[in-house]
Every structure is written in C-alpha cells, then in structure tokens.
Amino acid sequence: MKVQPLLQPGEASEWFARIRAGELDATSEQEWAAFASEPRNEAALEKREAAWALSADLAERPAIGAMLAEVDGLLAGTLPAAAARRTGMRRIWPLAAAASLALLAVGLVLLQRGRASVEDYSTGVGEQRVVTLTDQSAVTLNTGTSVRVTYSRGLRRVDLMRGEALFAVAKNPARPFEVHAREGVTTAVGTQFDVRIGTGATTVSVLEGAVTVAAASGPTPVSAGEVVNYGADGRVSAPQPANVTQIRGWVAQRIVFSDEPLAQALEDYNRYRTSPIVLSDPALGSRHINGVFRIGDEPAFLGALEQALHLKANRQDGQIVLEPQ
User: Fold this and answer.
1) Which among 91, 113, 135 is the end of a domain?
2) Which of 50, 162, 271, 281 falls between 20 and 30 A from 140, CA-CA?
3) For the chain, what is the mean pLDDT?
4) Whole domain around residue 298: which residue ranges?
5) How far apart are CA 94 and CA 72, in angstroms?
C-alpha cells in the first residue's frame, strides 16, 4: 500500500500563487503535475480557486487590509525584526505571501459560510437571458450585461459589472441577497428590483417589496415603485417614482418611451444595437417621443420618428443619422 505524503500547510497556496504568476519552468511543471495528481492536493487547490474569487470582497475589510499591509511592510523591509519573526515569512516571495494571507482569510469565511460557488453570466448587444439560481431566485440580464454570482450557505451575492439586470429574489431572512454595482450595494431579503449601470450613474428601481441601497452616504431604504441613483461620489439620491412600465417593458422585449427626450430615447435604444442612431444636430435631442417598440424592430422605430418628429434617416459611415425633413 502506497503511503501518500502529507500536504504541508501553505503548500497548495504557494503552488496556486506560482501558477497565477506564470512562474513555472520545465522542472517545476513536472513537480506541479505530481503534486496536482494527488486527490487531496487537487481538492485543496479547488478551495483556493474559490477563495481567490472572493478575495476582492475581503480585501475591502479592515482586518484583511491590515494583514496585507503587514506583508507589504515585511517585504519592503519596513517591519521590525520582532514583527518579521511573528509573521514567519522572511523567505516567501511577494505574490505567494500576499496570496497566502488573502486565501487564509477567505478560508476562514468559507468554513463559516460553507463552500462557495462562483458563476459568470453575460449577454451580448441585443441579447437577453434569464438565469435561475440555486435558491430559485431569478436574474434577467438585459442587453450587454455581465454579472458574477457567488453563492454559499451564508452568502448570496451578485456583482453587476456592466449593463442592467432584474432580480426576483427568493425570500430568506437569514441569507440576505446583495447586488454590488460600482460604488454601492443593494440588499434585499425577498423582493423584485432592477439595477442598471448607466453612463453617469447607477439606478436601482424597486418593483416589489423593499431594498436598502448603501453607498458612501450611508444606507437608504427604497420601497416598491421607487427609484434611487448614485454616482462616483457614492451619494444616494432621495427616492423618486420609478418607471416600472419601462422596466417591465424591456423584460417583454419592448422599449417604452413616455414623453422621453429624443436624446435619452436614442441612448436607451442604442444599447440594443451594434451600429448607433445619431442626431445630425444635438438640438434635435430636446424633442420628445412617445411609443412602445419591439426591440430590434428598426423600421417601426425609424418610421415613428419620421412621422411624429418630422425626421429622416440616412445611413452613412456605419451608422444612421437623423436629420430634419
């Protein structure tokens, strides 16, 4: 019977860091292959991969930041000898040291919350997609959207990197549902809300139930039928009436305009196109438009602009230019 060598503490972390840094030569590749062939080592590496996916969240926590700062000081030679002996890492190279501390911290969270699963979902321009999560919550991705979903026994988190998504959250008071988008976090227990990352601000619209939107200015409660927004300064606006009809419209593959300035209407419409519709004169953007249009039905949209706003559409240089008739 073959006796398997014991997995040394930190060995999997060091291998993981070396692979991430691309620092394997021919000799170390053979050593790596032998190490990864052991089932226990493979499992340890999988845990560190899951931990790495959560490290961005943990890096924001003061305790973890202090640990990483201590490592930086050690590697820069700024820590006193006593602190260096206490860390026990005088010979470890920078990436391995930083990764080991981050992974250790994440590992503690994983032990408390259960093993996390991390999944990425996205849509291209003009595409939509509905994703059903493990707790039966649903995420509807609008055009040009990218999200990362991190789930564990004690965590329900979605990172919205770009675009817009509608969340229908299954109720679980013991397991809040968080949506991180730019400078803010929207937290719900069980509700339906929409988060959109725009060019100047992020908007959160609540269709059912209630959420809390937290940013630098603090938490703001938002109820059904209300919308708030926040920008780079992290200040959450006061709740205002939400355009719920417009949100339900895009879910049904319709774009709804209700007395919308043409400039704003074109910004919304162009999210579903690879070639934009532009104005020959910015002053035309102050005209207002009403109507419901099927996403992708370009002739109907342009025909409405021609009839209602007395514009004509000309194709040139890979785009459509709207001019006065």
Assistant:
1) 113
2) 50
3) 79
4) 253-324
5) 8
